[in-house]
Amino acid sequence: MKTLVVAATKAELTFLYQHFNLQEGDFIEDKNFDVLITGVGMVATAFALGKHLSSKYKLVLNLGIAGAFDRGLKLGSLVNITEDTFAELGAEDGEHFLTITDLGFGENTYKSNSNVNLNLPEVSGITVNRVSGNEKNIRNLSERLNPKTESMEGAAVLFACKQEKTDCLQVRSISNYVEPRNRDKWKIGLAIKNLNDWAIAFLSDMN
Ligand SMILES: O=C(O)c1cccc(C(=O)CC[C@H]2O[C@@H](n3cnc4c(=O)[nH]cnc43)[C@H](O)[C@@H]2O)c1
């Protein structure tokens, strides 16, 4: 059985493509693992996984960059996001937020699930449609959910894996802090390099 590597953009896997000499394209089948590029966001991710996730995979490995709420996480450092929440899924009730669980429509938090020990800091994250860049919104999210990271896909991957009963891991590299938007401070290159170095070693060791 194979591993399915899932990322939002090909740019986030640049060095992995180079190292394993992968062909161009958004779904690549290699000897020991396949790669799926979903597009940015939870809708694109859910759609792509709906098309490609199947029982032929023993593990889904979600890779990407992420924002950090926790200033203790260094830019370029890697985290194992073991729990991820759809932060906006629910209803506003004045100043109060009702989750879909409060509304009686199911879960909004999903966990990763694997026996593999990654030896990376384990954190909980949130998944959003809109990158947080407004002080009041950031404070509300922190108080309500106490997340350490933020991405636009993570919870969708964990959700799909739960539906398909497939083991999954989410490893992300911190590219920026969650704060009022200042793109000049983002360290995307460093985050992608460190993420790819880790992923190349992990996938090489597995096989
Ligand atoms: O501009 C570039 O060079 C570049 C290269 C590769 C990827 C990007 C992206 O913007 C990827 C979008 C991806 O990043 C995740 N992300 C990163 N930081 C945050 C955040 O603070 N809040 C939410 N999501 C974040 C997200 O998962 C996107 O899919 C640019």
What does this entry look like structurally?
This protein is of the alpha/beta class. The chain has one domain (2-206): Rossmann fold. Helices cover 28% and strands 32% of the residues. It has five helices and eleven strands, in the order βαββαββββββαβαβα. The chain has helices spanning 14-19, 42-52, 135-145, 154-164, 188-206, and strands spanning 2-7, 27-29, 33-37, 57-68, 78-86, 90-93, 96-99, 109-111, 122-127, 149-151, 167-177. A five-stranded mixed beta barrel has the order 4-10-9-5-11. α2 runs parallel beside α4 (154-164). It is globular. The N and C termini lie close together (11 Å). The model has no long low-confidence stretch (mean pLDDT 97). It binds ligand LNDFFVEH.
Q: Please, what is the average pLDDT?
A: 97
Shape: globular
Number of strands: 11
Main pleated sheet: 5 strands, mixed, barrel
CATH homologous superfamily designation: Nucleoside phosphorylase domain
Number of helices: 5
Structural class: alpha/beta
Q: Which ions and ligands are bound to the chains?
A: ligand LNDFFVEH
Classify the helix fraction into a percent range: 25-40%
State the end-to-end CA separation: 11 Å
Radius of gyration, in Å, reads: 17 Å
| Tally of domains | 1
Our estimate of the beta-strand percent is 25-35%
Low-confidence stretches: none
Strand order of the largest sheet: 4-10-9-5-11
CATH architecture: 3-Layer(aba) Sandwich
Q: What name does CATH use for the topology?
A: Rossmann fold
The topology string of helices and strands comes to EHEEHEEEEEEHEHEH
Which CATH first-tier class would you pick?
Alpha Beta
